[in-house]
Amino acid sequence: MVAKKSIFEKLKLVEKIDGENETELNEEAASIEESNQQDENEKNEDHIENSNNFNVKATNTLVNDNKKVGNTYMDRNIDINKVLSIEEIYGKFSLENDSTKTVFVIDEFFKALPGNLPREVRKQSVINIIKASGKDIDLILRDGESRANILNNHLKEFSKKTEDSVTGYQMQIQQLMKEIEQLKNRINEREQLRLEQKSIIEFEMQRIDCIMQSVE
């Protein structure tokens, strides 16, 4: 049976992950941690400034993407009579299926790294691996943002249509209850008329009976 390829092999970053490669990853991660510690003070101000600039740019981009996703989504007809799987929801928008090009590649990289490494070291290692593979981490993060927006919009629209449907049923129930009440009133009216008619006829029958008895 052919062994399952690791995420590193899929991206052709390594030929095979074995004990030697894992040792190299540990050594590289330790080196990254030491290097990060040395450069942290020097790059702190530049990092903050660059991060702020990036956040402004990224926010503007995501707003536009959200608007586009939202407009596309609102044109879709949601069937509230069945529950869709996550894959079916994604499928309605023709999202990227290759996991190495989506936000999920980040999780795969984290799982592929040794679990005993510090969180910050693993984080920086994943970022470096993504860059080494020639992928744009900003696009990967926007993929995650788009998926989150699509799922959130689907839930909102599904909930809204469900609430509208429930409201419609409740209105029908109220209308039916009103009609039932009207029918009950009609039944009472008919019963009252029947009693009145019975009383009139019985009175007349008694009068006739008395007249007939008077000559017998």
Automatic annotation (TrEMBL):
* Taxonomy, superkingdom: Bacteria
Regions annotated as coiled coil: 166-196
The region called Disordered is annotated at 22-52
Q: Which UniProt keywords apply?
A: Coiled coil
Q: Where is the composition biased (Acidic residues)?
A: 22-39
Which ranges are annotated Basic and acidic residues under compositional bias? 40-49
This protein is called Uncharacterized protein
Naturally occurring in which organism (per UniProt): Clostridium aciditolerans
Lineage of the organism: Bacteria, Bacillati, Bacillota, Clostridia, Eubacteriales
